[in-house]
Amino acid sequence: MLRFNIKKGDVITLLSLLLLEYKIEGITIRNDNGSQFIANVVRQFLKDKGVNQEFTHVATPEENAYIEALHSNM
């Protein structure tokens, strides 16, 4: 799923699909502070699935270097 922007429902859909393939309980997901990641419904979904959320600091793309590198190549 490649899009210019995503919504909270898209995050939940993608994570639900990942749950069908992989065991994600106990992992930590690092994301920025985008509205789709800080949404209460997404945070509760992850909590219910046993997934930890780690947020990067504002205006520090170097804290999420892998995805920023991918974005620069796209």
Describe the structure.
With 74 residues, this protein is mainly alpha-helical. It has a domain at 24-73: Ribonuclease H-like superfamily/Ribonuclease H (Nucleotidyltransferase, domain 5), CATH 3.30.420.10. Helices cover 49% and strands 11% of the residues. It is built from 4 helices and 2 strands. The longest helix has 14 residues, at 8-21. 4% of the residues are buried. The model has no long low-confidence stretch (mean pLDDT 88).
Q: Roughly what percent helix?
A: 40-55%
**Which structural class do the helices and strands define?**
mainly alpha
Order of helices and strands: HEHHEH
CATH topology of the domain at 24-73: Nucleotidyltransferase, domain 5
User: Can you say what the CATH homologous superfamily of the domain at 24-73 is?
Assistant: Ribonuclease H-like superfamily/Ribonuclease H
Portion in strands: 5-15%
What are the segments in which pLDDT stays under 50 over at least 5 consecutive residues? none
Output the radius of gyration: 13 Å
Shape: globular
